[in-house]
Amino acid sequence: MNSPLSSVVLFHIGPVPISQAILTTWGIMLVLVLGAFVLTRRLDLKPDKRQTVLELIVVTLDTQIRETSGAEPAPYRGFIGTLFLFILIANWSSLVPGLEPPTAQLETDAALAVLVFLSVIWFGIRGAGVSGYLRSFAAPNAVMIPLNMLESVTRTFSMFVRLFGNVMSGVFIIGIVASLAGLLVPIPLMALDLLTGLVQAYIFAILAMVFITATVEDGQPEPADTEPTSPTSFPTKQDKEP
């Protein structure tokens, strides 16, 4: 088992070293692209079993986004869905003999966290404009600007550490048990590791959604105060007349 703090370089493309984690990441990206191309061909108004399963997945994803953020899912469906599927397949890639999940390596989790950090900026500016995005750091008041700026960095770092720690620890525990007790004993641990991989992918995607919508909402202008109602007019002489 390789140390998660070191990368195994397989070959070089020019001066750029290509590690096993990068090669596995490219393979997962290729699977996602080809899978999306093949599964979304020949969609019809009368869905067959394949299309029904796909629509069920999309509806479930939309429901999770709507219930988590209260926002319409359409602008975020592509990014959050792709993020979830990539992390899920990466975590479950340990089922393939000889492969270690790329999410058990520092560089992959750091890249995913940086991607979420940049997406918060992108969706924040697109949803509230540049001034709105900058105004989100002043919520609830200007005194919080330094803390909010620091929070935007630390929460991204916490996502990276959480994903790396959970996936890496699962890989290490299964490797140690397999080396000591043979191949059959770690099977329950592998099942637990699959569940952990699913939960970690879900948490990472949900946290990304929460951070994005919080930035968009904080950047929205405050609603104008309601106009004061006109003073109650006293009845005139004509009103009193029958």
TrEMBL record:
<feature type="region of interest" description="Disordered">
    <location>
        <begin position="220"/>
        <end position="242"/>
    </location>
</feature>
<feature type="transmembrane region" description="Helical">
    <location>
        <begin position="20"/>
        <end position="40"/>
    </location>
</feature>
<keyword id="KW-0812">Transmembrane</keyword>
<comment type="similarity">
    <text>Belongs to the ATPase A chain family.</text>
</comment>
<keyword id="KW-0066">ATP synthesis</keyword>
<keyword id="KW-1133">Transmembrane helix</keyword>
<dbReference type="InterPro" id="IPR000568">
    <property type="entry name" value="ATP_synth_F0_asu"/>
</dbReference>
<dbReference type="InterPro" id="IPR045082">
    <property type="entry name" value="ATP_syn_F0_a_bact/chloroplast"/>
</dbReference>
<protein>
    <recommendedName>
        <fullName>ATP synthase subunit a</fullName>
    </recommendedName>
</protein>
<dbReference type="Pfam" id="PF00119">
    <property type="entry name" value="ATP-synt_A"/>
</dbReference>
<keyword id="KW-0375">Hydrogen ion transport</keyword>
<keyword id="KW-0813">Transport</keyword>
<feature type="transmembrane region" description="Helical">
    <location>
        <begin position="197"/>
        <end position="216"/>
    </location>
</feature>
<comment type="function">
    <text>Key component of the proton channel; it plays a direct role in the translocation of protons across the membrane.</text>
</comment>
<keyword id="KW-0472">Membrane</keyword>
<dbReference type="GO" id="GO:0045259">
    <property type="term" value="C:proton-transporting ATP synthase complex"/>
</dbReference>
<feature type="transmembrane region" description="Helical">
    <location>
        <begin position="163"/>
        <end position="185"/>
    </location>
</feature>
<feature type="transmembrane region" description="Helical">
    <location>
        <begin position="74"/>
        <end position="92"/>
    </location>
</feature>
<dbReference type="GO" id="GO:0042777">
    <property type="term" value="P:proton motive force-driven plasma membrane ATP synthesis"/>
</dbReference>
<dbReference type="InterPro" id="IPR035908">
    <property type="entry name" value="F0_ATP_A_sf"/>
</dbReference>
<feature type="compositionally biased region" description="Polar residues">
    <location>
        <begin position="227"/>
        <end position="236"/>
    </location>
</feature>
<feature type="transmembrane region" description="Helical">
    <location>
        <begin position="112"/>
        <end position="134"/>
    </location>
</feature>
<keyword id="KW-1003">Cell membrane</keyword>
<keyword id="KW-0406">Ion transport</keyword>
<dbReference type="GO" id="GO:0046933">
    <property type="term" value="F:proton-transporting ATP synthase activity, rotational mechanism"/>
</dbReference>
<keyword id="KW-0138">CF(0)</keyword>
<dbReference type="GO" id="GO:0005886">
    <property type="term" value="C:plasma membrane"/>
</dbReference>
